[in-house]
Amino acid sequence: MPGSDGKRRKIGFWYRLAAFLLKPPLILLFKRDWRGVEHIPQDGGFITVVNHNSYLDPLSYAHFQYNTGRVPRFLAKVGLFKGGFVGAAMRGTGQIPVYRESADAVGAFRAAVEAIEKGECVAFYPEGTLTRDPEMWPMTGKTGAARVALLTRAPVIPVAQWGANLAMPPYAKEKKLRLFPRKTLIVQAGPPLDLSAYYDREPTAEVLREVTDVMMDAVTEQLAAVRGEPAPAERYDMRKAAVQRHEQRAARERPAQPRGADGQQETAGQAPATAEAAEGEKNA
Hints:
InterPro entries: Plipid/glycerol_acylTrfase. By secondary structure, this protein is α/β, with parallel strands linked by helices.
């Protein structure tokens, strides 16, 4: 298995600097509830799949993961790596640039595969963006994490988090921190997923979607345990929601049909149908 030789990434200067700067305010402003630390592998490469419901939750997850001694490498937009302190920090901590314009889906994650094979942890937000679910449940996921999981066969750890969204809701009109009363950042890791049934199958779009659904089901299960309530039966799908919004908008903008003599709104094809009915009565 990749990474089974005990290799693990050293924390390094930049990660220690980030921890030095960020941990004190996080400890001061938030309470912490770390769960499932025993599921984080002590050595070897692995993947975490994490839900995303606040601009703050990468910090809470990174804090949790840093405390396990296994620092994560996040996939981030390539623009964040272009110069300045942020760019230097992103490069120095070993974060992975994602070239979203790449037509080669596997090639876009080549650095993630290489990192895992070197014994590192790569963290995926499979939703690809902040959840749009009105109740903050995980949405349908993208297939990047599934591709990397099948290529590397590395352990996949589902992680759920809650609390950062209460301090900074994802789509609040006012981007203000709600620090008081003091919020608790809960991060819960679950046991590794068994994806062995998919390893010898061709990674078709259908297989990648199945693996992604397995991952999102596991993350949702962890979040349901954290929240102490059942998850919705159907996962929020941004594409379906966009189609529904488009159809509703088109319906609102559609011109009203003229009304008939009886006051009922006529629809296309109504007159021919009436004529056919009349003809049928005449021939009866």
